[in-house]
Amino acid sequence: MSTVPPGPLLDVAELAKRFTVGAKQGLLARATSFRKPVAPLPQLHAVDEVSFTIGRGETVGLVGESGCGKSTLVRLINRLLDPTSGSIRLGGTELADFKARDFAANPHRARIQMVFQDAGDSLNPRYTAADAIADPVRRLKKTSGAELTARVEALADMTGLPRELLSRFPHQLSGGQKARVGIARAIAVEPELLILDEPTAALDVSVQVVILQLLQQLKRELGMSYLFVSHDLNVVRLLCDRVLVMYLGKVVEQGPAAEVFADPRHPYTRALISAIPQAVPEQRAGRLRLDGEPRSPIDPDPRVCRFYGRCPKGTPRCAEEMPLLHPAGAARQVACHFA
Amino acid sequence: MLPLLRHARYVLSENPVTGLAFGLFALFLIAALFGPVLAPYNPLQSNAAMALKPPSAAHWFGTDQLGRDIFSRVLVATRLDLTIAFASVILAFMLGALSGVAAGYFGGWTDRIVGRLADTIMAFPLFVLAMGIVAALGNEVINIVIATAIINFPLYARVARAEANVRRDAGFVEAARLSGNGEARVVLGHVLPNIMPIMMVQMSLTMGYAILNAAGLSFIGLGVRPPDAEWGIMVAEGANFIQSGEWWIALFPGATLMLAVFCFNLLGDGLRDIIDPRMRT
């Protein structure tokens, strides 16, 4: 890549993924119901018209509760899953047109890699650490022999994995060592965008810090951009330049991390941030508690705000008009009528 | 390779029964490879003067109605029986494991076709199906192999399908796709090696079953034809003489058959411990 095209590294526009839920009708039901109109099957809106960008060298945090569509969004971007509609442009190349099942052989495959949430589950139990790290290099960079061995050892050194451990199987490694193998594998093909899917969730607190420092250091050395998915808001505040807040498949707020954490505009963001544990009891006062359950993501009413029913505000207008993501300040966007 | 050997020694010292099974297996292997050389008599040579003699120093297992040495015949038959069993197990493994893994990983139509095929085979009484296949294809040894492989196919396909299905959404499968492995490579290079320990146990267990099946078909006169030495035929021939007191004709081939089945069943457990890397410490 001699010439760097202008614009953001990743440009996701109106990306949507809907899953069909409910049992498909059987042959008998279809054969006998030819006169009746076929009712459309219910659709689960996992990711609903999401747009955002990631600049070169930028770290963008993605936060939101379980089941809000974070994982689906990540799988769409790293092309393990085909979107229903929308575009994913990486440095000017449209990736959404490539089929996920053929993407492994695509020359753009090496440009997006991922560090998985559970390092243990993401390592093949029958591959040694060296095999795991070598796999992407062998497949995507067509390297073999002594060159491959040298590359694997260099990657182990970069990620702080002792070379003696390269011949071990995953079950013979500690959690932190497995995390290092996962990181070494992800950076092995020099990706431009590295997706970190809760990279420290399965680790001890003491190891978390070390791994996060390693990730920061690698980002500087290799000039990657990060999409950092996390439940740990303190880590997001610390590491991310910008943050995206997702709720039920929609981005409800985005902006520079410092601003969003200092002055959350969307009620959901406010609730999230006030849920960060506080050491000083006095600061726990005025905590925003959410009651009730999230609305169903299956065939949601397009007019009702996704947060309606759980939102402390919740006016009649929220049930009639879906708030769109609109600018709120210089670099921020919020999807709420009252922000 | 050295760590594997060290691990094998560890497993054997922990579990002497596995050691016994491996010892028996080695004996069967030697008999299969060198049987014709080791046999003290020509297994096909009849000798009317020596007919129906009980076990003695000269004829350890006695002689049959034609005066043939039963020990030599049992020894020589090992090669034929093991070859049939090995060939059919490997054929069943290749067909069953590949289609089962594909069914479990891809789901959809692949799954439906493989599943219904397995169901159809399972719907028959398996031994009768094997008889039918040999009768239809022709009374030859190769057809015993094919018939035994077909009746074992559903066992392999189902185990492989179930094991592949739980792994299709595992993190390492997604990671393999991110690493640039196409679907075929993910299935063969990442999913299949993980179900090999279970398939090895399955192979060892069905190995015993395959020997029984081949002997059973020969017993009722299909496949191997006299005067060839084969355990099933020998039991069938000896069965006629049990009532008149010549028990050794049927007993020794039958006991060998039992020992072979026993050996392969025990071997399955031991093999799993050696192959599964999670058992390695």
Describe the secondary-structure layout:
The complex is a heterodimer of chains A (339) and B (281).
Chain A (H helix, E strand, L loop, with lengths): L9 E11 L6 H6 L10 E12 L4 E5 L6 H8 L7 E6 L2 E2 L17 E4 L3 H4 L6 H12 L4 H14 L16 H13 L5 E5 L7 H18 L2 E5 L3 H7 L2 E6 L2 E7 H6 L4 H8 L51 E2 L5 E2 L5
Parallel strand pairs in A: 3-8, 3-9, 6-7, 7-8
Antiparallel strand pairs in A: 1-2, 1-4, 4-5, 9-10, 10-12, 11-12
Helix pairs in contact in A: 4-5, 4-6, 5-6, 6-7
Chain B lengths: L1 H13 L1 H23 L31 H37 L1 H15 L3 H12 L3 H27 L3 H8 L4 H37 L11 H9 L8 H28 L6
Helix pairs in contact in B: 1-2, 2-3, 2-10, 3-4, 3-6, 3-8, 4-6, 5-6, 6-8, 7-8, 8-9, 8-10, 9-10
Taking pLDDT < 50 over at least 5 consecutive residues as the criterion, the unreliable ranges of chain B are none
Mean residue pLDDT of chain A: 87
**Helix percentage range of chain A:** 25-40%
- Over all CA atoms, what is the radius of gyration of chain B? 22 Å
Shape call of chain A: globular
Approximate helicity band of chain B: over 70%
CATH class of chain B equals Mainly Alpha
* Sheet with the most strands: spatial strand order of chain A: 6-7-8-3-9-10-12-11
Total count of helical runs of at least 4 residues of chain A: 10
Biggest sheet record of chain A: 8 strands, mixed
Would you report the number of β strands of chain A? 12
The secondary-structure element order of chain A is EHEEHEEEHHHHEHEHEEHHEE
The CATH architecture term of chain B is: Orthogonal Bundle
Q: Note the total helix count of chain B.
A: 10
Radius of gyration of chain A: 22 Å
Instruction: Output the structural class of chain B.
Output: mainly alpha
Mean pLDDT of chain B: 86
As for the number of domains of chain B, it is 1
> How much strand content do the residues of chain B show?
under 5%
